[in-house]
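User: My advisor, Dr. K., asked me to get a structural model of this assembly before our group meeting. I'm new to this, so sorry if the format is off. These are the inputs:
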Amino acid sequence: MASVHKYKTISLIRPSESWSFSNLTQKDTNYLTHCYHRYPAKFIPQLARKLILENSKENEIICDPFYGSGSAILESILHNRIGYGTDINPIAYLITMAKTTPINSLKLQKEIESINYNLKHTDYDHDDYPPEKLSNWFDISTYNTLKNILIEIKKIKPQYVMFFFLCAFSHILKSSSYWNNGSVKPHKIKDKFLNKTNEPISRFFSHVKKMELRNQQFNLILPEKIKNNIDHYRQVQLGDIKNITSNNQCSLIVTSPPYVVSYEYRDIHSLSLNFLQDFFSNIPNHENFIGSSRRKTTPHKIFSDTASSIIEDLLVQDKNLSKTVSSYFLDMQDFFIKSNQLLKTNGRLAVVIGDTTLRGVSILNTQVFTEILTNLGFTKNQLIKRDIPFKSLPFTRDPETGRFVSSKSSSCIKSYSHEYIMIYCKN
Ligand SMILES: C[S@@+](CC[C@H](N)C(=O)[O-])C[C@H]1O[C@@H](n2cnc3c(N)ncnc32)[C@H](O)[C@@H]1O
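Assistant: The format is fine. Below is the predicted structure of the whole assembly, which you can bring to the meeting.
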């Protein structure tokens, strides 16, 4: 009963206008290298920036342990902080490295010209069938054209310049395939190219040119001392949060963690992961991703009464879903324990999270996180409610699967019209 009462207090908070960023256009949020690659549930960079500026000082370490497309890492280095973090998704690592590495403009221009020249003048002697995992998404000709682009990218040295081009390549895969552009789930549109030609090479160069311009602007804006010492200011790992080096040195953790049964990152990035598998030594499975419906975390004690009652309520509706949500809460609890080890004393933790409903049961993430953090000894600093004005953000869920859908169909249920920014302090 006590927790229900406390939750009412949370839900009654008025949304803060200064955190809604309702005036920003997509162009504003895609400024500088933030435009390099789409990513689901991406931070509004201005939100990450405001959290960073209000809760840390220059030269301090800012950590995002679920950095995704690296929005918070980029904002950290742009504002004279050290951006530190991890993500289990190799595509997240690729995007983040590309977005945060300034490249000499002349060097980049030379590489672009060289790829362009080689693609025009090389007689690539192969006409392969796409491997099974890609055959549903590309016809033979598109697959081979993409492979040729990849052959040229592979020649590029050093690695950080190659990453720039791999990022562009990964970004155009979806639009070059039969994958429904508007869908985060693997959904095929067979006649996608019925009335237009599919031109991966021009699509690739068009995006590379846009990125080239942004790299130039990034070079101009990034403080010289950071540019010359980028590996010190940007320290990102590819790996599971459980393996992140906990150094008790971070001043601020700023993150939007994964949501439960929403995005399957393994599926969303399957085209890139399958095409680029040679570049990564280890491709994680669905089960490795927190929030995945296939994840099974070994049961252990949860420090939240609200979490226990949500799991019980779900058990009546759907046993598997109850186990998945239980795994999610335990994973998030482990993340908060990890946060304690990452932060220095008086360091702050800023988590952006929303509540939702699954099978008619309210999944009160904010309340659950509040109870866990309090029980772990964190002190509340601020709880901010913000409206989500962006149409591009997920706001409906499929009632059957609980996954995010972009459709406005009446059978879908509203998921997030607002979210919370929880700021807690380590004692
Ligand atoms: C909501 S997204 C973060 C988006 C990010 N804020 C941005 O601006 O792009 C959550 C991220 O958590 C990552 N993730 C899921 N399970 C993880 C795990 N076990 N360890 C580390 N990262 C994980 C996913 O790969 C995903 O990139």
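One thing worth pointing out at the meeting: Residues 260 and 291 are 4 Å apart (CA to CA).

User: Perfect, thanks a lot.
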